[in-house]
From TrEMBL, chains A, B:
UniProt keyword annotations, A-Z: DNA damage, DNA recombination, DNA repair, Metal-binding, Zinc, Zinc-finger
GO process terms (BP): DNA recombination; DNA repair
Name listed for the protein in its UniProt record: Recombination protein RecR
Function, in words: May play a role in DNA repair. It seems to be involved in an RecBC-independent recombinational process of DNA repair. It may act with RecF and RecO.
Domain Toprim: 82-177
Keyword field contains Mitochondrion: no
Family: Belongs to the RecR family.
Lineage: Bacteria, Pseudomonadati, Pseudomonadota, Alphaproteobacteria, Caulobacterales
PROSITE patterns for this protein: RECR, TOPRIM
Superkingdom of the organism of origin: Bacteria
Positions annotated as zinc finger (C4-type): 59-74
Example GO molecular function: zinc ion binding
CDD domains attached to this UniProt entry: TOPRIM_recR
Amino acid sequence: MAASAGPEIERLIALLAKLPGLGPRSARRSALALLKRRDQLLVPLAQAMTAAAEQVKTCSICGSLDSTDPCSVCSDRTRDGALLCVVEEVGGLWALERGGSYRGRYHVLGGLLSALDGRGPESLRVGELVARAGSGEVREVILALPATVDGQTTAHYLAERLAQTGAAVTSLARGVPVGGELDWLDDGTIAQALRARRPA
Amino acid sequence: MAASAGPEIERLIALLAKLPGLGPRSARRSALALLKRRDQLLVPLAQAMTAAAEQVKTCSICGSLDSTDPCSVCSDRTRDGALLCVVEEVGGLWALERGGSYRGRYHVLGGLLSALDGRGPESLRVGELVARAGSGEVREVILALPATVDGQTTAHYLAERLAQTGAAVTSLARGVPVGGELDWLDDGTIAQALRARRPA
């Protein structure tokens, strides 16, 4: 680590290095930046972390993170309760909310099935999903899972489990992303976009 | 930002995004990682930051950061007080200490001269450096400044200012870094390594 810095700095660097995207070198840079801007950044960030640790709750309905339980999406009565969008993690929910076009509700799965990591359905919020989908209110379950092997395995499994609920099960469309140059796209995406072609 | 998360999460993301190397996207990932590992990471990091904000001081002699003032290097009597190494920032001091081969003392300049940013000698710890170098104890001042235009301008200026003190002024050697393939080195480094060639 920093070798000649005090134990407080060493500990700060060691913990910062555990953040995703930061390694030992960038953790040292971050620690220095924090210590240089003590009143503008270090103290406010410490307070924001303490506040988040105390205030942020997991929504008992959808599994999202928010200051309130139920979360702001679940308690928003203008939302369409007939649409239920399944995401892997809260990050996916945030991404869809930034898009701004979805007005239904969510269900955070808490991960994906993974044979490699030995993660089965019992470690995900599958039972809660089936119960919500079968409550009668939900008309369509949209699977917004990543286009990876684990994501598609999970989608396949969920589609089977949800068949009994009577809700329609759909997936996000695959195709060319907005602004996507064909030259830069992988072959799998081009093949899928071609198969799913539509009248212009 | 995250749109549908509470104010605590929004604030946490906004502050994390100010760390060097983190942008809005990686700040969101970091916030989620922190909230998922609340007791193992979020709370300890908040405490480490609070402790650092309270305990870490700027050394009144060399300008380094440490839990004590004077810092552990300045108060280490086994260090060679005849050698004084000038670094731009604390990060440079840490890098030299990790190297482990330097046993002299340091002087943190607090920046570099920059015509572009309008930073003159009065905003750096130049006066303190000249005073320390002229105290009689210092035999050699080693300029460990970056090999950039600003770094070399600063080194040139310091060499002139330090001429009156009687201490010898040296710079870090320029050349091929350890493990450096000639193929991958820039032309300037190769030219300097060639000019400064030594008997094998």
